[in-house]
Amino acid sequence: MLYTLAGGGTLCGVAALVLLIVSTATDFWMYYRYSGSSANQGLWRFCINHKCHAHTITVAFWDATRAFMLLAVLSCFAGVVLGLGAFTNGTKNRRIRTGGIALVLSGFLALLALAVYTGVTVTFFGKRFLDWRFSWSYIIGWVAVILAFAAGVFQLCAYRQTSAEPAPSNNPES
Q1: CB 151 within 8 A of CB 103
Q2: For the whole model, what pTM was predicted?
Q3: What's the pLDDT tens digit per position in 134-157?
Q4: Residue 86: its pLDDT value, please?
Q5: How far apart are CA 8 and CA 31, in angstroms?
Q6: How far is CA 153 from CA 84, 96, 110, 119, in A?
Q7: What are the Cα distances from residue 12, in Å, to 4, 38, 145, 149?
Q8: CA-to-CA distance for 80 and 141, rounded, in angstroms?
């Protein structure tokens, strides 16, 4: 049962890691119309009519969202590595527990990033642009949050099961 839970947690963690990286790196967090042209923006740059430009102004919510997303990626990576490490040399209870904590932390950090972005986007951009919507990079971020939390819970359940099981005896019955 340990390998089933830890394996499921590691698999969810790998999926969350891939989605977090894609979400953080792409430029489709928000889609809107700007002067009659289609435009989209991500955490690092914005694009108008398929011509992309780096964000020229430093806005605190972009910096906070970037920082939380990068920390979420790093935490998720650590959780996946620790989850994989549990399979190399047999059962490593502390690695499984630490990996589970790192994955739950990753989900929380990504949740914070997406909450900050959502709050500012709805209050600021919602009033500035009439025709706007969240786009696929943003949605992938929310899916990654769910997967990271699930991965962490699976890892922590695997740890709990291994710590609750009695140690096998070394007395062979002859």
Answers
A1: yes
A2: 0.88
A3: 999 999 999 999 999 999 999 999
A4: 78
A5: 34
A6: 16, 11, 16, 27
A7: 12, 35, 11, 9
A8: 17
